[in-house]
Design brief:
The protein is of the alpha/beta class. It is built from 7 helices and 5 strands, in the order βαβααβααβαβα. The relative contact order is 0.22.
Length: about 190
């Protein structure tokens, strides 16, 4: 766990099509910080076959490795496009439960701030997404999981620049509170 010390970690989380990837990239560019892509999507793109209960643990290990690799550079600020909380929520949602070690790691690796994307953006199929009608239900599952780990959460809603501005304010407030260097925002 020593690798987790020293970096302020901000996670974009929430159900499908809630703007996580787009917002992670925009925020990372704005705050001149690295970002870690979604492990489940990377897994799906590189490992043949369908997702199942058997793929939960490999996805969790990949998520941890991606985060640890990014943190080795000791950035003062790191954005994540999801983290183990997503693995926990989706394992419970799809398979009825999650391995206890992943739940423990999700708590131990709890980020400094979670930006919880409200599913108020249009749903777009992409070959991986499959729950257009369950987005509100999943949003509530994410909210409960974040409360359970006592996470600092800011809900992000709206479209375009309004959504980005809300997220930037939340990140800026955390950084100011902690005295974290911001780099040079790129705007």
């Amino acid at each position: 766990m020593a690798a987790l010390v020293g970096s302020t970690r901000i996670v974009l989380t929430g159900p499908e099509c809630s703007g996580k990837t787009t917002l992670a990239a925009v925020l990372a560019a704005h705050f001149d910080a690295p970002w870690v892509p979604e492990a489940a999507r990377r897994f799906v793109e590189t490992v043949p076959g369908d997702l199942s209960a058997a793929t939960v643990e490999p996805i969790a290990r990949l998520a941890m490795r991606l985060e640890d690799d990014a943190l080795r550079a000791a950035p003062p600020l790191l954005f994540r496009d999801t983290d183990l909380v997503s693995t926990v929520v989706y394992a419970r949602h799809y398979y009825g439960g999650c391995p206890a070690w992943i739940e423990r790691e999700a708590l131990a690796r709890r980020a400094d701030l979670y930006l919880l994307g409200r599913p108020d953006l249009p749903w777009a199929p992409d070959g991986v997404r499959d729950r257009p009608l369950q987005r509100e239900e999943l949003f509530e599952e994410f909210a409960r999981a974040l409360v359970a780990i006592d996470a600092r959460v800011v809900e992000v809603s709206g479209e375009g620049s309004a959504r980005v501005a809300l997220a930037e304010r939340a990140v800026g407030a955390l950084l100011a509170e902690r005295g974290v260097p911001r780099g040079t925002p790129r705007r």
